[in-house]
Amino acid sequence: MGDLRILGFAGSLRRASYNRALLRAAREQAPDGMIITIFDLIDIPLYNGDAEASGEPPAVARLRQEIRSADGILMVTPEYNHGVPGVLKNAVDWCSRPPQDAALARKPVGLMGASPGSTGTARAQSQLRQSFEFTSSYAMPQPEFLMARANEKFDAEGKLTDEPTRLFLQRFLRAFADWVRLFGPR
Ligand code: FNR
Description:
Structural class: alpha/beta
Distance between the termini: 13 Å
Helix content: 25-40%
Mean pLDDT: 97
Bound molecules: ligand FNR
Low-confidence stretches: none
CATH class: Alpha Beta
CATH architecture: 3-Layer(aba) Sandwich
Shape: globular
Strand content: 15-25%
Order of helices and strands: EHEHHEHEHEEH
CATH superfamily: Flavodoxin domain
Number of helices: 6
């Protein structure tokens, strides 16, 4: 069985983002047989049907291509005003099209999120799950990865220092590997 190729992206553009740091931690903690590649959403323009009609913007074409060739997608979401930040929702919107051949269709997806607050992006993750109903993506139902009090879990360089979280991250990624394998190779 070959390596699982996972494409990861985080819905924050902030250099010191907890969610970007969490995604890097996931890349480090990936189990044997799983390779996580990170895609930076900074170059993805705002969705515009006119731009789409005149050809895919290059960054969108790259993202769609990388999603298509990945075995699974790992999305790491912050929570803004009890919802999904525009950066991530915008990327999902681009990759939900064209609806009959969407890059996200029938892709296994793992969801994680980090927040300094106490609910650890629970509401944002629930919202994202609703989007996956439309895109026909297969979001892993359990375990959930909700990182609360993220400000206490990384050092100044953005390295995950909280040992229980690191162990849970490993467990989560092993479960995600099993989930992705359920759907077979791309
Ligand atoms: C927030 N934050 C926030 N946190 C939360 O747990 N629930 C929320 O609804 C919100 N709402 C919210 C709105 C806006 C506009 C901002 C900028 C922030 C705080 C948020 O979790 C915090 O800024 C995180 O650090 C953002 O994630 P990154 O950038 O660290 O990955």
